[in-house]
Design brief:
Elements (H helix, E strand, L loop, with lengths): L1 H4 L9 H10 L4 H4 L2 H37 L5 H9 L2 H30 L8 H18 L1 H30 L23 H16 L4 H5 L6 H30 L19 H8 L5 H33 L17 H20 L1 H10 L3 H22 L16 H15 L3 H6 L2 H7 L2 H16 L19
Helix pairs in contact: 2-8, 2-11, 4-9, 4-11, 4-16, 4-17, 5-6, 5-16, 6-7, 6-13, 6-14, 6-16, 6-20, 7-8, 7-13, 7-14, 8-11, 8-12, 8-13, 12-13, 13-14, 14-15, 16-17
Protein name: Amino acid permease
Keywords: Amino-acid transport, Membrane, Transmembrane, Transmembrane helix, Transport
InterPro entries: AA-permease/SLC12A_dom, Amino_acid_permease_CS, APC_YAT
Amino acid sequence: MAEEQQHEVKRSLQTRHLSMIALGGSIGTGLFVASGSAISTAGPGGALLAYVGIGIMVYFLMTSLGEMATYLPVSGSFSTYSTQFVDPALGFAMGWNYWFNWAITLAVDISTAAIVMQFWLPEIPGWVFSLVALVLIFTINALSVRSFGETEYWLSLIKVVTVLIFLVVGVLTIFGIMGGHATGLSNFTMKKAPFVGGIPTILSVFVVAGFSFQGTELIGITAGESATPEKSIPAAIKQVFWRILLFYILAIFVIAAIIPYTSKDLLGSSASDIAISPFTLVFKRAGLAAAASVMNAVILTSVLSAANSGMYASTRMLYSLSLQGYAPKAFGRVNRRGIPIMALFGTTVIGLLTFLSSLFGDRIYLFLVSASGLTGFIAWLGIAISHLRFRQAFIKQGHHVSELRYHAKLFPFGPLFAFFLCMVVIIGQDLHSFATWDWQAIGVTYMSIPLFIILFFYYKLRYHTKLIPLDKVDLSKHHLDK
């Protein structure tokens, strides 16, 4: 094992891998299925406003992350940056928070894969498909970082091509070239459209949009294994912004134009609602008979892609936590192929146990899923805070912004805007429960917050850490991966 300790993660991810990983991470069931419920809730205008708002916020977060990741490219970046630029207690809480998020998401995704497969093979028990999915994802991640990157590239490409075909078919349907009759933009003005339910409902859709975009921050995790981070990360961020805006905003516009917000078919929000996915409905409206089966196959690749990313992200975060002394040293071991193999095993075991809890105790499983609900938004808050502190420390210590290889856009507005919007989304997650003082619902919805606070104060009180003064922030570019 001593020999194994000396190996390092391999920098073999190319720019095309990073671009597709960041893009693929944000195109999933959130767009393919849950986008319909967003239109149903807030109307076409409300849904578009929410997705544009979150899209802009995510872009600013990506540029913040890009500035730090090109300066200090390490695996498990959020935890490292919080530790180095803010407070070790924040790094500890941020790292475990993010690992927990993806380890639970991995379990949710392998459960979802079973639901999707039962669309075709309802007589086979779901756990069989889940086990096959978990073994497949483990194998891909155990082979090499390049096998992860290639798999993610092709799975993401399938999703991207699907969205492009959907946009073409959708526009042709709107103008009546396909599907028989032109719908035009009449759905944008019917009844209470375009904005339905006012600010509270639009705010609730911000949450749906936020969940849809989670995964774009994976580009920061991959920085430690990028062959040329100083070139790949800025290129990936630039491409991803336009693609996300193009795909999400145009896709929601097309759905809203073809299917009225009053349609009950838009209420589906999980992978079990394939038959009423907005994408399926639009393809059917255009006269494509095999729409449900085709979309089911696309959603299966989408779920496997999310599980693949989840396994990678949680493994690298556990590896990073070990290097920083926040997790057992065993998780820092890297094999000859550059894989943190013990961290991979550890994450797989947690994913498997969480999945098994869905078979033997639905309440435990639902509790874990609820507990991970807001962890992605907490990670985004950490990125914004770390970037503000990084830039302030950089200037305070006599450096100039021109020294940075990549500059975040509109600093300090970008991270401040992202911080504010993240806080609004977190607080607005379930305002209805506060209005009715439903303590049980409040507890389930906001569970991630006390868990994060407990982690933070546990480390702070045990090790007596303090906010690092700006002139003492460590800006040295030593690689923590070594």
